[in-house]
Amino acid sequence: MLEIKNLHASIKGKAILKGLDLVVPAGEVHAIMGPNGSGKSTLSKVLAGDEAYEVTEGQALYKGKDLLTMSPDERAREGVFLAFQYPVEIPGVTNAYFLRTALNAVRRHRGEPELDAFTFLQRVKEAMKLLEMDAEFRNRFVNVGFSGGEKKRNEILQLTLLNPSLAILDEMDSGLDVDALRIASRGVNALRDADHAFLVITHYQRLLDYIVPDHVHILVDGRIVQSGDRSLALDVERAGYVDHQASA
Amino acid sequence: MPDAVEQVVGRAYEHGWVSDIQSDSLPPGLSEDTVRFISAKKDEPDWLLQWRLEALRKWQAMEPPDWAHLKWGPIDYQSIIYYSAPKSTSEGPKSLEEVDPELLRTYEKLGIPLHERAALAGVAVDAVFDSVSVATTFRETLAKAGVIFCPLSEAVREHPGLVRKYLGSVVPVTDNYFAALNSAVFSDGSFCFIPKGVRCPMELSTYFRINAKNTGQFERTLIIAEDKAYVSYLEGCTAPQRDENQLHAAVVELVALEDAEIKYSTVQNWYPGDENGRGGIFNFVTKRGICKGDRSRISWTQVETGSAITWKYPSVILKGDDSVGEFYSVAVTAKRQQADTGTKMIHIGKNTRSTIISKGIAAERGQQSYRGLVRVLKGADNARNYTQCDSLLMGDTCGAHTFPYIEVRNRTAKVEHEATTSKVADEQIFYCQQRGMSEEDAVNLIVNGFCKEVFRQLPMEFAVEAQKLLAVTLEGAVG
User: Fold this and answer.
1) For strand B190-194 and strand B220-225, is the pairing parallel, antiparallel, or unpaired?
2) Contact between chains at A73 and B452 (C-beta distance less than 8 A)
3) CA distance to A102, B1, B10, B479, per residue, from B4 (Å)
4) Alpha-carbon torsion, ordered B369, B370, B375, B380, to 10 deg
5) Alpha-carbon Rg of chain B, whole angstroms?
6) Which residues contact B222 (CB under 8 A, 6 or more apart)?
7) Helix, strand, coil distribution of chain A in percent, nearest 5
8) Quick one: which H or E segment has residue A96?
């Protein structure tokens, strides 16, 4: 699904990713852990196509296609989804309208007909029920006045409806209490199957109790310094990133 | 992401075509003779001619206003044509069948359902082409309800009492430079009278178009709603694309008597000029309503996307007790457009309330100013005003300015003013793109969200048109 080779990226001239390699096959959940400033969020932004970041070297293939030459919206329509660490507010645009616009953009690209209002509403209702979201969220403006936890849940709502092939979750656990984390993870886990891949970026092991990864990678100073299974995350929680930083 | 902004803003002006219609025009220039000619052409009574001549004399002694945050060179008033009529209507069309087919095609291009059969939308249209009103639809239906909706020139003949009573009663001849000019040379416009207790059965609408070259358009609209009457009135405007500037100096007067309500909506899409600031309409307009009776209500909604210069302050005089004035505005300036627009709310009666919602959007080299006055007079006990004034900037070569004036002479009054300035953030655009929307769609979504409070005041079809116009104006302007 995703194949990253020797990826280098910088922001405002400052190198952040320094030769990152990563392969995420379909059907798998990969967790990226690392200390603050190691480049976790940069990786998610670069994969999503944020133009604030400059790719200076390397390659990222998505389903065999060169991801880095696609515009952000092309990537999204092709099935790459980023759940933002800090979801953005859009005043005056209701959540429902935003979702429908996004969903129809993706569907048109896939050659599927646009959803009529009724079918769309049914789907939104189902997804919101799964995520235990109040109906009023449909008519509230996108992320405006949402608590941190509500914003994160709203990201997962979008994920559920857009049903992307590759979902990148950037610190989805930050700002979530245990209940909210459990509910949001339920949304993610509902999508897990052989056709979906997930890149779960987190600072803390806690999230991985709910979204259990197939592989765990430790990112330090812009490179993957260690990969392993779930137990690696537990080690990190016990010992911290200190050893890894030393070895980087 | 400057590329998409430029694309969004850079779309060509769609209404820039010129109709090939023979017109019957005066040579350029303004003198007493011009005024006499116009008045004679319209078969006007002597009182109106004298009224015009008085206005001309006053105007000649006045200076153009220089206080607005606008830059424009001197206007040569002697090089403007003050009267231009499509030739085929010089006799006056008796029915739609007699209207020049080319003219009908023009309106078709504009998307106006001029033909009654086609006017399923239920909009009665008065179309003003250059200086004269060419057709008014649905007049019979309206007449049955007792509503008078006709060209002002006709009202002068058919309903002289009403015209004489109200013309200039809200915007006096000497109100300002451009109002005085209009009073002297106004050529036509719409007249609308809703009698006591009548709810106008359909939306009324006027479409203005400046077609002839070097022509100024000076229309004058007068709307009167008697006790408990209601009317919703829509106004749209376009002009061909020309390299020279054209002057538009209109006057609109609204009178609402007891318990009456007038809603006046404008979608203004005059040619804005090119990216170097060449050409475009100079839009100097005076619009004012008076809530004369108790519990009356006047609401202005405007979407201003066109014109090289917009100078416009639709206002409400709240004279009746418990009367309500509202102003909802979206103004967009891209390319080198300049807008200085806002409102005046004059609270005279007790318990009068006013609401001002202004949304200014500036892109490219557009300059955008909100100018508003809230005045509460001594006797206006418990007057209330709420003003919200938001500016949205796209890119860093445009500007937004706010000039609020508040004068309160009554201790029980409550006046609130909120203002914000924001930029379309790259993060917002990226967020929408990450959900699959193109950069252009993302910008439109964000801008429409910004304007939502105003758009929802517009009748449905107009709201849709307004959104489209906004998209066209901002095409290519993201960044």
Assistant:
1) parallel
2) no
3) 18, 6, 10, 7
4) 170
5) 21
6) B152, B155, B163, B166, B167, B189, B190, B191, B192, B252, B253, B255
7) 40, 30, 30
8) helix A95-110
Residues in chain A where the model's pLDDT stays below 70: 242-248
Q: How many CB atoms lie within 10 A of CB B91?
A: 8
Q: What is the pTM of this model?
A: 0.82
The whole-angstrom separation of Cα B186 and Cα A135 is 55
Determine, for residues A82 and B434 on separate chains, whether the beta-carbon distance falls below 8 Å: yes
Sequence-ordered list of residues with C-beta below 8 angstroms from that of B60, at least 6 positions apart, any chain: none
Mutate to test the interface with A, among B434, B446, B450, B467 (most CBs of A within 10 A): B434
**Nearest residue, CB atoms, B439 vs list A73, A101, A106:** A73
Sign of CA dihedral A77, A78, A79, A83: negative
Which pLDDT does position A248 carry in this prediction? Answer: 46
Place of tokens 């210069």: B309
- Most A CBs within 10 A among B361, B418, B435, hence the mutation to make, goes to B435
A136 secondary structure, DSSP code: G
Cross-chain residue pair A93–B448, CB shorter than 8 Å: yes
**How far, in whole angstroms, is CA B122 from its chain's centroid?**
21
Q: Which residue has the tokens 């959007």?
A: B361
Which among B427, B433, B451 has the least Cβ separation from residue A73? B433
Which residues does residue A224 pair with via DSSP β-bridges, in sequence order? A219
C-beta neighbour count of A210 within 10 angstroms: 18
* Cα-based angle B27, B33, B34 (whole degrees, multiple of 5): 45
Q: Which two tokens stand for residue A43?
A: 């990786």
Give dist(CA A218, CA B353) in Å, integer.
Answer: 63
Chain A touched by B29 (CB under 8 Å): no
- Which residues in chain B have Cβ-Cβ distances shorter than 8 Å to A90? 428, 431-432, 445-446, 449
How far, CA to CA in Å, does A182 sit from each of A54, A179, A185, A204, B105? 35, 5, 5, 15, 63
**From CA B437, how far away is CA B297, in angstroms rounded?**
41
Q: Regarding beta strands B315-318 and B84-86, do their DSSP bridges make them parallel or antiparallel, or are they unpaired?
A: unpaired
- B4: which chain A residues are within 8 Å (Cβ-Cβ)? none
pLDDT < 50 positions in chain B = 1-10, 88-94, 113-123, 479
According to the 3-state scheme, what is the secondary structure of B306-340?
CCCEEEECCEEEECCCCCEEEEEEEEEECCCCEEE
Whether residues A90 and B449 touch (CB distance < 8 A) is answered with yes
Contact between B446 and A50 using a beta-carbon 8 Å cutoff: no
Residue B322 neighbours by CB distance under 10 Å: 18
Tell me the C-alpha distance between B373 and B438, whole Å: 40
Per-residue confidence (pLDDT) for residue B212, from 0 to 100:
54
Which of A101, A49, A55, A44 shows the shortest CA–CA distance to A72?
A49
Q: How many CB atoms lie within 10 A of CB B418?
A: 9
Task: Name the pairing type of β-strands B324-333 and B353-363.
Answer: parallel
Which residue of B lies nearest to A51 if distances are taken between CA atoms?
Answer: B1
Task: Put residue B152 in one of left, alpha, beta given phi > 0 → left and psi -120 to 50 → alpha.
Answer: alpha
For residue B434, give the nearest of A48, A52, A91 by CB distance.
A48
In this prediction, does ipTM exceed 0.90? yes
Q: Which two tokens stand for residue B224?
A: 């009167």
Say yes or no: B445 contacts chain A, CB-CB below 8 A: yes
Q: Which of B428, B439, B451 sits opposite A90 (nearest CB)?
A: B428
CB-CB neighbours of A247 under 10 Å: 10
Contact of A111 with chain B, judged by CB distance below 8 Å, is answered with: no
